[in-house]
């Protein structure tokens, strides 16, 4: 890694007005943040992280921005995927390589079968923070919020937020990135994670030298704001607006077309094709009803966003035997709905965002192997949401390729 705090030449600390903008963004209300029991230690850790090594280089991030502009224009497809929650225990070379391998195979299927180049972003090297629907679990303990905050075991000690975990997360992210670089994939894989834990995300920032004066995060190439932290006047949106990195925004079925346009104007202030990826996660029952007007209004705004489908987060349910799961049939149905909407409106169905692993887990129902509820306990290993296993992921990529081939051929007048 060539990077250091000095390798950009311009540190955030040297630019007082941008540092002021960061402070103003972070002063806004922030959802889903842990209450550190020792705020003094938390502040010390944030200070230590300010001197931490970057995980990615700005050159790589700028290259990704170029690739995403091609996606926004309809000339490429964005594949994003990986664990729901990376864990410190699973930050091993075999696990990372298995996930990289499945993403590589998915990309090869989609590119080979559709004829469109594929840009791949792994949920990797930093996907350690989780938003939760409830602050307490069924036992009344603080919810597990990802390894960067606390530990999943069902004890009060394990669930108490520990700021030192941010230092461990940074070290693990650096190790994971080293594995990715060593894996030396022919197509360089980019990394992204949810921009959630603001104490962590504010730490490794530089003044970007590649475009309008903004900040570059050194923690990932791509960052997205989640469904639970996208309050229009909240800290996450205000902070994401300052970044030069390409940004994703998850949008669920409660978002209105007017709000969608407002998000686009805030998060793509300079009108850069591909700067913003709108990640539609409507659920298979709502996508055909809710998405069309959003796409129409955003398209009319003139911003060239990437339309990406997350067909998993709107389709989560609890199985009869108590496992958080998803059915492949629902995932495929949401994808079909997403492609139908874009085909009807003449817009580019630009990508998918999925939770997958290269391992042979039994977390999602269905697929060619016909996983049933009674199969789930056999290899249910996720730390948070259920992931498609390797076979289910490859099967899904054939479906995506078939849908994409239909859209792509139509676009170019092929049969
Ligand atoms: O990926 C994230 C989950 O969907 C999110 O953490 C919510 O999960 P929960 O409903 O189990 O809290
Ligand atoms: C929490 C996630 O998604 P969403 O914000 O769409 O619920 C996620 O991607 O893991
Ligand atoms: Mn998830």
From TrEMBL:
Phosphoenolpyruvate binds at residues 123, 227-228, 250, 281. Its EC number is 2.5.1.54. GO terms for biological process: amino acid biosynthetic process; aromatic amino acid family biosynthetic process; chorismate biosynthetic process. It is an enzyme of class 2 (transferase). Gene3D superfamilies: Aldolase class I. Keywords: Amino-acid biosynthesis, Aromatic amino acid biosynthesis, Cadmium, Cobalt, Manganese, Transferase. Binds 1 divalent cation per subunit. The enzyme is active with manganese, cobalt or cadmium ions. The keyword Metal-binding does not apply. Pathway: Metabolic intermediate biosynthesis; chorismate biosynthesis; chorismate from D-erythrose 4-phosphate and phosphoenolpyruvate: step 1/7. This is Phospho-2-dehydro-3-deoxyheptonate aldolase. The lineage of its organism: Bacteria, Bacillati, Actinomycetota, Actinomycetes, Kitasatosporales.
